[in-house]
Amino acid sequence: MAYLQFPLLILFILLLGAVMTPLLMKRFNLKGKYFILTVLIASLSLSAYLLFQVMTQGSYMYNIGNWSPTIGIQFSVDEFSTMMVFFILMMTTLVVIYSLRDIEHEILPKQIPVYYSLIFLLLVGMVGITFTNDLFNTYVFMEILAMTSCAIISIKRKKENFMAAFKYLMLNTLASISFLFGVALLYMATGYLNITEMSNQMAIAWEMYPTNILLALGFMAAGLGIKAAVFPLHTWLPDAHSSAPTPSSALLSGLVVKVYIFVAMKVLFRLVGTEIIIVNLGVHNYIAYFAAVGMIMGSIFAIGQKDIKRMLAYSSVAQLGYIFLGIGMATTQGLSVSLFHVVSHGLMKSALFLSAGAIIYKTEKRKINDLSGIGYEMPLTMIVFSIAALGMIGIPGMSGFMSKWYLALAVLESNQPFYLVVILLSSFLNAVYYLPIIVAAFLKPREDGSEEMTRDGIPRTMTMPMVIIAGLIILVGIFPQILMNIIERAVPTFL
């Protein structure tokens, strides 16, 4: 039963990595790289074993120090949290392997140990948010995540990074205050901060303090909406994700914004409950409206971009709309497809940012118009980019197609066919800004007029993670039940 301690042990190992990395790495050498990978692989192995145990033995509540959950810290170790923690650690490990060579081109050598220390703190925030069953501790982990994200964005000493980090810091501070107001109002109404205990008191609290509950939901929705970059609260995201070092962009866009969605799902479905959310307030309808607008507007903004990383950042705004549309359906099928697209988008967006970063690493080209013939110069990189981009469009055989297929079934099951039109229109817009890049890369000649195919010319530590992620996109696209079987066991923890 030693695995019962694994959630805390994972956090301890990551925190140890954050503290020890700057102390052990005076220079970014081979020894330092092995230490970083050892910490990540140890955490990933524990999370994989924990996921296996939960899937076979069942979920459990872990009370740190055996304190009562009403006053202590409690982790909810269930199918949802273990699956997402495993995914977060797996993707981060791949991105960090990619970064071992790329980061030397992004920041100063003396900043590299600090950078990896920040990556470990970023993981502490994400893993903590996913496991915790307490709203105040959720707030604490959110602050760790926000401060670390801000530092990772501003680590490149350029004006655009400082401006993006400042905007991120200002808006996320407002979001944190708004979320904390919501937590305080819920505490006033229920007398607890533990999500399970609050949920048990919610029916009585709603009868006695409906205004408190309504205001709390409003404050928390605003705070989480900013942090998750939901349209029209997304204004910080394009600057932050496009200016950050490429590995950071992959983590921020592929993982970080998703954990705030986890918090929103916990608050809406585990804490407040479907009866109040759906029957009394109809909150799910507003979520679906905003999601639909975000799916369209994010793509329209992406079409107008000339910088490839900025285009990918706006694409994230559109793709987050798919996740929230599933949540807005407020059904088992809807929540299932939301979690499916969390994983699917995490894979696709990481592959896109890493392949874009590989192009910048070798050619220094960021403008989309300069990528003609890049498929001849960097064929493997552009194949990875194309697989992920086709997934974003929704081409069969890719994980993105299954996301859209499941989402279409969810909206039809909810008898809301209008959203099917939105999904089709959004997919068309995705094609408008992704297909021209693929066509120009493989069908137009290089700048020097040559059509000779050459090797990518980037380190294997960069190509290997990209190829693995591209393989996972295809694997999930062809065998979606591998992922959906786990998700179908995780969704009942919300409904």
Automatic annotation (TrEMBL):
Cellular component GO terms held in the UniProt record: plasma membrane
UniProt name for this protein: Monovalent cation/H+ antiporter subunit D family protein
Mode of membrane association: Multi-pass membrane protein
Stretches assigned to the NADH:quinone oxidoreductase/Mrp antiporter transmembrane domain: 133-429
UniProt-listed InterPro entries: CPA3_Na-H_Antiporter_D (IPR050586), ND/Mrp_TM (IPR001750)
Subcellular location: Cell membrane; Membrane
Record key words, sorted: Cell membrane, Membrane, Transmembrane, Transmembrane helix
Membership in a protein family: Belongs to the CPA3 antiporters (TC 2.A.63) subunit D family.
Residues annotated as signal peptide: none
Membrane-spanning parts: 6-25, 34-52, 80-100, 112-132, 138-156, 168-193, 213-237, 249-271, 283-304, 311-330, 342-361, 382-406, 418-443, 464-487
Pfam families per UniProt: Proton_antipo_M
